[in-house]
């Protein structure tokens, strides 16, 4: 979730907490105004060439949106006939989706998944969640600056993928709790911007 409107940064405060309409909390980190190099000269076709982009300052969620946070959002909406919020959840593979319809409301499949990131969400669902929580989806440039910083690093922590800094390539059979990899932090304090959820 990216927040810009009505959010100001207190001097010396790297992160702050915001509340959603359902009283769930998000920690947000500040990404300062300025230029950064986006893309790579030797990257994939859609990543090249590297070019300088200037962005205004903004806030970005420190963590991925959790199942519990998304559950609060989806239960705040009127249910559709049959339950499934088809425009908000993909449910292509119900084994991945950690939210279930009980006939009256949505619940977590188990309490153990509450702090794990939500998966199987449509783009429309992600956008609706961001708007409901007072923000919007970040642009590609905003997300990349929040993840890479301004020094051209390949990963939020620097160079080279590391299983000590990210959940990737089957390290775990499922996403882990948000914030699990404290050493995978971006230059601005955001976590899980590499690995965990594809």
Topology:
Blueprint (H helix, E strand, L loop, with lengths): L1 E2 L11 E5 L5 E7 L2 E5 L12 E5 L2 E4 L5 H9 L23 E3 L4 E3 L14 H10 L7 H9 L50
Antiparallel strand pairs: 1-6, 2-3, 3-6, 4-5, 7-8
Can you describe what's shown?
By secondary structure, this protein is an alpha+beta fold. Helices cover 14% and strands 17% of the residues. The protein has three helices and eight strands, in the order ββββββαββαα. It has helices at 67-75, 123-132, 140-148; strands spanning 2-3, 15-19, 25-31, 34-38, 51-55, 58-61, 99-101, 106-108. Strands 1-6-3-2 form a four-stranded antiparallel sheet. It has a two-stranded antiparallel sheet with strand order 4-5. The longest helix has 10 residues, at 123-132. The model is unreliable at 4-12 (pLDDT under 50).
In the predicted model, the low-confidence regions spanning at least 5 consecutive residues are 4-12
Radius of gyration, whole Å: 17 Å
Profile the largest sheet. Answer: 4 strands, antiparallel
Shape category: globular
Order of helices and strands: EEEEEEHEEHH
Mean pLDDT: 86
Strand content: 15-25%
Give the helix tally.
3
Kindly report the spatial arrangement of strands forming the biggest sheet: 1-6-3-2
State the share of residues found in helices, binned by percent. Answer: 10-25%
User: What structural class results from the helix and strand content?
Assistant: alpha+beta
Q: For the terminal residues, how far apart are their CA atoms? A: 16 Å
* Number of DSSP-assigned strands: 8
């Amino acid at each position: 979730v990216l927040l810009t409107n009505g959010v100001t940064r207190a001097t010396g405060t790297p992160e702050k907490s915001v509340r959603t309409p359902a009283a769930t909390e998000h920690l947000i980190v500040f990404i300062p105004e300025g230029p950064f190099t986006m893309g790579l000269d030797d990257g994939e076709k859609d990543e090249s060439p590297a070019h300088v982009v200037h962005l205004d300052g903004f806030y970005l969620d420190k963590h991925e949106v959790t199942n519990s946070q998304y559950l609060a959002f989806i239960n705040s909406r009127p249910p559709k006939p049959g339950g499934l919020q088809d425009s908000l959840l993909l449910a292509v593979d119900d084994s991945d989706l950690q939210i279930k319809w009980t006939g009256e409301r949505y619940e977590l499949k188990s309490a153990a998944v509450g702090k794990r990131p939500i998966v199987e969400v449509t783009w429309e669902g992600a956008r609706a969640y961001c708007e409901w929580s007072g923000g919007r989806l970040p642009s590609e440039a905003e997300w990349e600056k929040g993840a890479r910083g301004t020094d051209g690093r390949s990963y939020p922590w620097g160079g080279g993928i590391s299983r000590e800094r990210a959940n990737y390539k089957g390290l775990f059979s499922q996403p882990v709790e948000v914030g699990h990899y404290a050493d995978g932090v971006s230059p601005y304090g955001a976590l899980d911007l590499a690995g965990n959820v594809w």
